[in-house]
Design a protein that fits this description.
With about 140 residues, the protein is α/β, with parallel strands linked by helices. The protein is built from 5 helices and 5 strands, in the order E-H-H-E-H-E-H-E-E-H. The structure holds ligand CA2.
Amino acid sequence: MSKKKILLVNGPNLNLLGKREPEIYGSQTLADIEAETGAFFEARGFDLIPFQSNHEGKLIDFLQTHADADYLILNPGGLTHTSVVLRDALAGTQVPFIEVHISNIHARESFRHHSFLSAIAAGVIVGCGVQGYRLAAELIVQRVS
Ligand code: CA2
């Protein structure tokens, strides 16, 4: 049987993790998170494909290219609060996804309180720090096994 294919997608500015604003986003880099999440899935017989872009269209192209994936962990960054086109892409591919936010968006500025994506997410993890990615990974292993 072929391995389950899991995507880890991070949106704009998340390439700066661990390099700026550690009081909000912690000190782990995106490379750390991708390596740890990849090792977690590999140990359980899954393939993880990580991707980050600062460009909305590149994120959409990636999601469409991998529309055969079994599950997606997605931190859309600021696009969470603005992007109808990303929501349309996610609805179109129908890959189930867990939306992850490192910070507690509900405790921040009011413009961060609304997500265009949460209504079509399989789950949402908010405000658990970078550990949110690991929590999403554990949930996915349970759900697709
Ligand atoms: O809390 C989250 O994970 C966010 O998705 C992060 C976005 C923000 O716009 C959302 O409201 C909540 C921002 C990502 C920017 O990431 C940085 C990381 C380190 C330093 C600077 C920015």
